[in-house]
Every structure is written in C-alpha cells, then in structure tokens.
Automatic annotation (TrEMBL):
<feature type="modified residue" description="4-aspartylphosphate">
    <location>
        <position position="52"/>
    </location>
</feature>
<feature type="DNA-binding region" description="OmpR/PhoB-type">
    <location>
        <begin position="134"/>
        <end position="237"/>
    </location>
</feature>
<dbReference type="InterPro" id="IPR039420">
    <property type="entry name" value="WalR-like"/>
</dbReference>
<dbReference type="GO" id="GO:0032993">
    <property type="term" value="C:protein-DNA complex"/>
</dbReference>
<keyword id="KW-0597">Phosphoprotein</keyword>
<feature type="domain" description="Response regulatory">
    <location>
        <begin position="3"/>
        <end position="117"/>
    </location>
</feature>
<keyword id="KW-0238">DNA-binding</keyword>
<dbReference type="Pfam" id="PF00072">
    <property type="entry name" value="Response_reg"/>
</dbReference>
<protein>
    <submittedName>
        <fullName>Two-component system, OmpR family, response regulator</fullName>
    </submittedName>
</protein>
<dbReference type="GO" id="GO:0005829">
    <property type="term" value="C:cytosol"/>
</dbReference>
<dbReference type="InterPro" id="IPR036388">
    <property type="entry name" value="WH-like_DNA-bd_sf"/>
</dbReference>
<feature type="domain" description="OmpR/PhoB-type">
    <location>
        <begin position="134"/>
        <end position="237"/>
    </location>
</feature>
<dbReference type="GO" id="GO:0006355">
    <property type="term" value="P:regulation of DNA-templated transcription"/>
</dbReference>
<dbReference type="InterPro" id="IPR016032">
    <property type="entry name" value="Sig_transdc_resp-reg_C-effctor"/>
</dbReference>
<dbReference type="GO" id="GO:0000976">
    <property type="term" value="F:transcription cis-regulatory region binding"/>
</dbReference>
<dbReference type="Pfam" id="PF00486">
    <property type="entry name" value="Trans_reg_C"/>
</dbReference>
<dbReference type="InterPro" id="IPR001867">
    <property type="entry name" value="OmpR/PhoB-type_DNA-bd"/>
</dbReference>
Length: 238
C-alpha cells in the first residue's frame, strides 16, 4: 500500500482528500505547513506528496526544493490555486512531477496520482517487457517482438522509428490503460536519441506528431489510439 503525504493548510480540503485516498486504500499522512512536512519526511518514508504552494510560514516551493535535494525520486504532485503559466513552469522546473490547479476534479487527481506513482516504479518503460521475461506481445492483429524492437500488423512488418517503437511498446504494454504524456516524455528522455536526432525536442508537440504517425500505421486494423482528454493516450483493446 502506497503512503501519500498531503501538505495542505485548508482543513476541509485536507479532510476530503484524506478520506478519498483512504477509500482507495492509500496510507495517508498530513501536514499543514512546510515545517511540519519537513519533520514528517525526516521521521518516516512516504511514496509520494500532494503539495499545496500557498502555505503559512513558508511557501510550498521551498518544501519541493528541499525534498528534491534530499529524497531521490520522491514523486511530488502540486495542487494549488496558482494557475498562471509562469507558476506551472516554475513548479515543474523545480522538480514537480505533475501540477493541478484548484478547483479540480477528484477523478482526474486520482488518475494523475496513480500515473505519477506508476512512473516512479517504472523509470524506464522500454525495459519493462524484457525485465519481465516477455519475448513478444500480441494484441489482436498486432505482434511486438521486444528483443528485436520489431512490430508486425496482420503479418506485415511495420516500418517504425525508434521513438515510434518506444511509444507503441508502452501503449501495448499498458493496453486498455491511460498512458500520460509525461509517462512517454520521461521515458523518451531516459533513452538514447534517435540516430541523427541528437537535438530533437522532446515535448508535447513532438508527441502529437508520433501519435499521428502511429495512428496512420494502424489504420488497417481494429486497433485505436484514443486521446483521453486532459490525461494522455490509450491503446483501446480490439
């Protein structure tokens, strides 16, 4: 069972979040200030943080920087009323794994939290299938050979670039589940660049291009890469 630290000074919201996460079988610890959160993190281990920024005494960003310097790989989701683009960029650049603004949808928060924790457990998705000893994956007419990084559709080999293969492998590995944009971008950044593409930007715009290419290559099949609004993509089971 994963344990989440909620750092929030709004007592009503803190109670609501605590109740929701406990219903989902998370362990929950709480703090209402940066000082309390720091003391708790020094005393016990947690698997992730939901962090408000507008806290009494010290800004939540101080806790983010402090935690990043001391606890390697601890996932942090910022939940704040600060909805400016500059605030988002600042939070993500400081090391937050995700950023949600208030008011928010509880189901979206739950999905993003689950995705964040999943990424923390799977830092490099390209090793997932081989590490599990899986030689190939079959989804309807699609067959992926993980050893050779090759995919065939209806028996015909697909021409895939390295990034297209990595994206397809992740979607297939989690077929029927939402794969967030951050999942893909983080894994791409952890893998070697494509030949001749050492300076290629890895961002949401690039991801849209690769998704469009894969969709075209899967056109002749019942497989569908769905766009899950606000979250990411999902390879729907045929």
């Amino acid at each position: 069972m994963a344990t989440i630290l909620i750092v929030e000074d709004d007592a009503l919201l803190l109670d609501a979040l605590t109740g929701q996460l406990k219903q989902l079988d998370y362990g929950v610890s709480t703090a209402s200030s940066v000082a309390q959160a720091m003391a708790l993190l020094q005393a016990q281990a947690v698997d992730g943080i939901i962090l408000d920024l507008g806290l009494p005494g010290a800004d939540g960003m101080e806790l983010l920087v402090w935690a990043r310097a001391r606890i390697t790989g601890l996932p942090v989701l910022i939940l704040t009323a600060r909805d400016g683009v500059d605030d988002r960029v600042l939070g993500l650049n400081a090391g937050a794994d995700d950023y949600i603004t208030k008011p928010f949808n509880m189901q979206e928060l739950q999905a993003r939290l689950q995705a964040m924790l999943r990424r923390a457990r799977q830092p490099a998705f390209t090793q997932a299938s081989s590490a599990a000893g899986v030689a190939s994956t079959t989804i309807g007419p699609l067959v992926l050979d993980h050893a050779s990084h090759a995919a065939a559709l209806n028996g015909d080999l697909l021409e895939l670039t390295q990034r297209e293969w990595e994206l397809l492998e992740l979607l297939a590995h989690r077929c029927g589940e939402v794969v967030t944009r951050d999942d893909v971008l983080a894994a791409w950044r952890a893998s070697p660049p494509e030949p001749g593409q050492t300076a290629a930007p890895l961002n949401s715009n690039a991801l849209e291009v690769y998704v469009h290419r894969l969709r075209k290559k899967l056109d002749a099949s019942p497989l569908n890469i769905r766009n899950i609004r606000g979250l990411g993509y999902m390879l729907a089971k045929p």
